[in-house]
Write a structure and sequence with these properties.
Pfam families: DUF1203 (PF06718). InterPro entries: DUF1203. The chain is mainly β. The protein has two domains: 8-76, 2-Layer Sandwich (first zn-finger domain of poly(adp-ribose) polymerase-1), CATH 3.30.1740; 86-154, no CATH class. The protein has helices spanning 10-17, 122-130; strands spanning 3-6, 29-32, 52-58, 71-76, 97-103, 115-118, 137-142, 148-154. The strands form two sheets. The chain has a five-stranded antiparallel sheet. The relative contact order is 0.23.
């Protein structure tokens, strides 16, 4: 079993790049990066100083339901290439730790799976969770703000 880090789907990013609205039905805000703390959820790289970015509400779940967390994310304002799914830690994961949490086939949190995890241990923690029959996928979220970073699946 191999874990892979997956970015926001290109179809969702394209909707926003083409002027579409976010999870709250609002147009994304445009800001300019000062070079720190703006991880793009499509290419999974940090947005460089001077580059324009979009700030928007994102819901990484297929439908509204009580566990469908929605929160702020950043996206390059200009289209970027989607992160190629792989087992390597994405460039945006620069904090010392993150929340790693499992979700079931019904897209609900699987209780007891969430834990603040040192960054270098994320792949092995995700593999442990994904080995469970009740866990369909894993989210990596900020340990300080709970912001969605990326999704982990198995291949």
């Amino acid at each position: 079993m191999k874990v892979v880090f997956n970015a926001m789907p290109t179809t969702e990013a394209m909707t926003l790049w083409e002027g579409g609205s976010d999870a709250y039905g609002l147009l994304p805000e445009t800001r300019t990066s000062d070079g720190g703390g703006y991880p793009c959820r499509h290419c999974l790289e940090n947005i460089d100083a001077g580059e324009d970015l979009l700030v928007l509400a994102y819901r990484p779940f297929p439908a509204l339901q009580p566990y469908a967390e929605t929160g702020p994310i950043f996206l390059h304002k200009r289209p970027c290439r989607r992160h190629e799914a792989s087992g390597a830690l994405p460039a945006i994961l620069t904090s010392p730790d993150y929340i790693v949490r499992g979700y079931g086939h019904d897209n609900r949190i699987v209780y007891g799976t969430g834990a603040v995890t040192p960054t270098e241990q994320i792949p092995e923690r995700a593999a442990e969770l994904l080995a469970r029959p009740d866990v369909a996928y894993v989210h990596v979220r900020s340990a300080r703000n709970n912001c969605y970073q990326c999704r982990i699946d198995i291949v």
